[in-house]
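User: Let's play a game. I give you a shape written as tokens, and you guess the letters that built it. Ready? Here's round one.
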């Protein structure tokens, strides 16, 4: 079984304000880490702390957002728009739901070459991989020099925010640009992803502020202290590395990182039964800097003895977590232990990923990216082991088939969220987010 590495990290500062009869005691322990993960995935890193951890997404190229807000649209009316758009723009066979639609990558490459040679634009069915919403099967055929991907598919259309989704499931469909990035980076063996990192100097200033302001006269005063610290932290730096920073994949990774931080702080309520933000699970003795990350998690990646047929199943993602510490200069390193509330949060997030993906499009989009990265890794390995001789006509040609360009924010402001834990305890989180 082949399990490629992929990590999505989120750094948060967890703060504790304990309001006593003699005032409030303000305590903070911050830090950074490149946490380990499960399933044999590899670490490494760029950005973040001295251990190479990143506060965003980290993916091995050989393996495996600006959060836009649109005007509210009536759900029934939106459904009518999607179905009408799909009916007008798609061939009838593609506007039907299918439990297993097959897409030939060789055929797709040939069709793109034909359209480009004729000076014609790429069709929506080409740009959106025939409406596939997941990859369940990958087949390698050396006889026909082809790679077949297959999975559920349906008619698709564009939402008001620009995202292309299935008309029935509202799940994002697979994107040609993401496939191109996966294929073009699969042999680089360089890590890539995104990272949200607090400025080291401003992080050191928060440490100084905490040492200078150890009391608060009331809960309201304590809450204002959190806002003040968030102001000192200021904007977090957004870094995209290893992939074109203007690409759709880069935008999707940054968006997923935003979503992780918003869900963790409670800034966003996904309306998923049983899901709780980390802020709601925090306890008074849980103050520190924390890191959460997504990594791949398939229930199974099955293949035959010849390694020409692959079956993927499971949630595609899991969440892991790690405590961190920070010194007076803003340097970050691993904490010796991870708090139980942090582990509990990571576990319940992982359990809820299938339901969260139905509600949070950024998570579903990240699942699609993991599938495409795994597909690209299998294609590359099949070539290296002489099971596949296919050489694309245009997939690798960045001049003839350039990527679409998306804007990626360079900085993101701090999210500050607080809650009362009893009458005299104020708990808070500060995170890089939108």
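Assistant: Ready! My guess for every position:
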């Amino acid at each position: 079984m082949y399990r490629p590495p992929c990590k999505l990290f989120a750094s948060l500062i967890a703060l504790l304000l304990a309001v006593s009869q003699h005032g409030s005691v303000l305590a903070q322990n911050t830090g950074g880490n490149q946490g380990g993960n499960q399933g044999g995935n590899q670490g490494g890193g760029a950005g973040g702390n001295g251990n190479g951890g990143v506060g965003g997404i980290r993916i091995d190229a050989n393996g495996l957002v600006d959060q836009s807000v649109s005007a509210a649209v009536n759900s029934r009316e939106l459904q009518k728009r999607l179905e009408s758009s799909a009916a007008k723009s798609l061939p009838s066979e593609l506007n039907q739901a299918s439990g297993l639609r097959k897409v030939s990558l060789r055929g797709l490459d040939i069709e793109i070459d034909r359209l480009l040679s004729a000076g014609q634009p790429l069709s929506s069915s080409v740009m959106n991989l025939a409406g596939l919403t997941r990859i369940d099967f990958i087949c390698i055929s050396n006889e026909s020099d082809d790679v077949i991907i297959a999975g559920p598919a349906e008619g698709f259309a564009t939402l008001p925010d620009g995202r292309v989704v299935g008309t029935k499931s509202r799940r994002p469909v697979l994107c040609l640009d993401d496939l191109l990035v996966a294929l073009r980076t699969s042999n680089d063996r360089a890590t890539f992803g995104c990272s949200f990192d607090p400025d080291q100097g401003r992080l050191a200033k928060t440490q100084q502020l905490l040492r200078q302001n150890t009391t608060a006269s009331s809960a309201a005063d304590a809450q204002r202290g959190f806002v003040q610290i968030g102001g000192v932290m200021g904007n977090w730096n957004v870094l995209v590395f290893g992939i074109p920073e203007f690409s759709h994949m880069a935008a999707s990774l940054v968006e997923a990182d935003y979503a992780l931080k918003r869900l963790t702080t409670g800034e966003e309520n996904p309306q998923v039964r049983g899901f709780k933000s980390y802020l709601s699970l925090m306890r008074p003795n849980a103050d520190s800097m924390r890191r959460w990350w997504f990594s791949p998690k398939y229930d199974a990646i099955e293949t035959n003895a010849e390694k020409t047929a692959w079956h993927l199943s499971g949630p595609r993602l899991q969440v892991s977590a790690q405590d961190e510490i920070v010194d007076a200069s803003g340097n970050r390193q691993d904490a010796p232990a991870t708090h139980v509330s942090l582990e509990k949060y990571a576990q319940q997030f992982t359990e809820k990923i299938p339901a969260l993906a139905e509600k949070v499009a950024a998570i579903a989009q990240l699942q699609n990216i993991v599938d495409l990265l795994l597909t690209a890794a299998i294609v590359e390995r099949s070539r290296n082991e002489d099971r596949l001789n296919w050489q694309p006509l245009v997939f690798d040609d960045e001049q003839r088939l350039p990527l679409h360009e998306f804007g990626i924010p360079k900085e993101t402001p701090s999210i500050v969220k607080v809650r009362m834990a009893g009458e005299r305890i104020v708990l808070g989180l500060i995170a890089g987010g939108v």
